[in-house]
């Protein structure tokens, strides 16, 4: 009897790459905003650019924290900025 693959490995790889790219795209917007906002708040020059944020978006737990970090930064800047 021959074993036939149903293609679930390829589908899982495609979904993994898709979610990694989504995380990188979200990180490209949110991490530079979050880090640069806090840098300006403490009197430093903004130093993070979009591609550095997208690299942070690839990191599993750091990438997932980008949206809450951006929202918390935005809310805090409403009151302390």
Helix proportion: over 70%
Instruction: Write down the overall mean pLDDT.
Output: 91
Helix/strand class: mainly alpha
Radius of gyration: 18 Å
Number of H/I helices = 4
Please mark out the parts with pLDDT under 50 across 5 or more consecutive residues, or reply none. Answer: none
Overall, the morphology is elongated
Approximately how much beta-strand content do the residues carry? under 5%
The count of β-strands is 0
Major sheet details: none
Our count of domains comes out at 1
Order of helices and strands: HHHH
Distance between the termini: 69 Å
Supply the key terms.
81 residues, mainly alpha, 4 helices, elongated
Give your account of this protein's structure.
There is one protein chain. The chain is 78% helix and 0% strand. The model has no long low-confidence stretch (mean pLDDT 91). It has helices spanning 8-41, 50-58, 60-64, 66-80. It is mainly alpha-helical and 81 residues long. It is built from four helices and no strands. The chain has one domain (8-80). The longest helix is centred in the N-terminal third of the chain and has 34 residues, at 8-41. α1 (8-41) packs across α2 (50-58) and α1 (8-41) runs parallel beside α4.
